Amino acid sequence: MTPTKRTIRSFVRRTGRQTPSQQKALQELWPNAGIEYSNEQLDFAAVFGRAADTVMEIGFGNGDTLVQQAAENPHKNYLGVEVHEPGVGHCLLKARDAGIGNLRLIMHDAIDVFSDQIPCESLARVNLYFPDPWPKKRHHKRRIVQHDFLNLVADRLRGGGSLNIATDWADYAEHIDEILSQSDRFTCSERRVHDGEQPLDRPRTKFEQRGLRKGHQICDWCFVK
After folding, report:
1. What pTM did the predictor assign?
2. Distance of CA 78 to CAs 6, 23, 58, 199, Å?
3. What is the DSSP string of 59-70?
4. Burial class of residue 68 in the structure, from the number of CB atoms within 10 Å of its CB (0-12 exposed, 13-18 middle, 19+ buried)
5. DSSP SS3 for 99
6. β-strand 187-194 against 218-224: which pairing, if any?
7. What is the pLDDT of residue 3?
8. Is 194 helix (H, G, I), strand (E, B) or coil?
9. What's the confidence (pLDDT) of residue 121?
């Protein structure tokens, strides 16, 4: 399968400073918990050593909440995708300290991963929490929630699977409402606006707390295929 070719990306690859422990985690823990990007589709039963519902999270940041979800739901498999090495290193350390074995990580662009590595109808759920809002109008084309993205996700979700999104940017919330309203692949099962006290079936995140300190409201959705 040929990797997707794109000129517009929804992220900027930051070169944040890694701590020595994060560097060591990437060297020592990655071989067990990491999956290299390739253009071959994954066999989740082989990757996780069992057949179970698989949840994919896009852009997990430092991984604290991803590890929390995996620890609280040991009956599910979790696949996290992130491009920033310090965050991946931190997540590897948290997963090791939590003693969990139901989490795997890929360090690559999520769109390429969806296109090339995720089999059709193989995911139970996709989480997209507080993606980069690209607030300037000229950058709106960089927002990950677009029609092509929704079609990719819908193809990889099994019937009845869900796409769960959260943002603290009102303008991005309007954008998400508009794009999803034009899709015939998803139905909105719940939309919740709150001040941080009612996250929709997810932990509270670092980016959420940052938005709340700025006085932003939070918007959560659950879209079902």
Report:
1. 0.91
2. 27, 23, 11, 19
3. --TTSHHHHHHH
4. middle
5. coil
6. antiparallel
7. 44
8. strand
9. 98
Helix (H, G, I), strand (E, B) or coil at 206: helix
Question: Please, are residues 66 and 80 in contact by the beta-carbon 8 Å criterion?
Answer: yes
| Amino acid letter, residue 123 | L
Of 53, 97, 116, 132, catalytic: 132
Helix %, strand %, coil % of the chain (to 5): 35, 20, 40
Angstrom distance (rounded) from CA 180 to CA 207: 23
Q: Which residues of the chain have pLDDT under 50?
A: 1-5, 10-11
Structure tokens at 152: 């990719």
Distances (CA, A) of 15 to 30, 123, 179: 19, 30, 31
Indicate the domain borders of the chain: 53-224
Length reported for the chain: 225
pLDDT attached to residue 137: 81
DSSP 100-164: --SEEEE-S-HHHHHHHTSPTT-EEEEEEES-----SGGGGGG-S-SHHHHHHHHHHEEEEEEEE
Domain 53-224 has what CATH class?
alpha beta
For residue 18, the tally of other CB atoms under 10 A from its CB is: 18
pLDDT of residue 16: 63
pLDDT recorded at residue 209 = 93
Question: Is 184 designated active site?
Answer: no
Give the integer Cα–Cα distance in Å for 124 and 52. Answer: 9
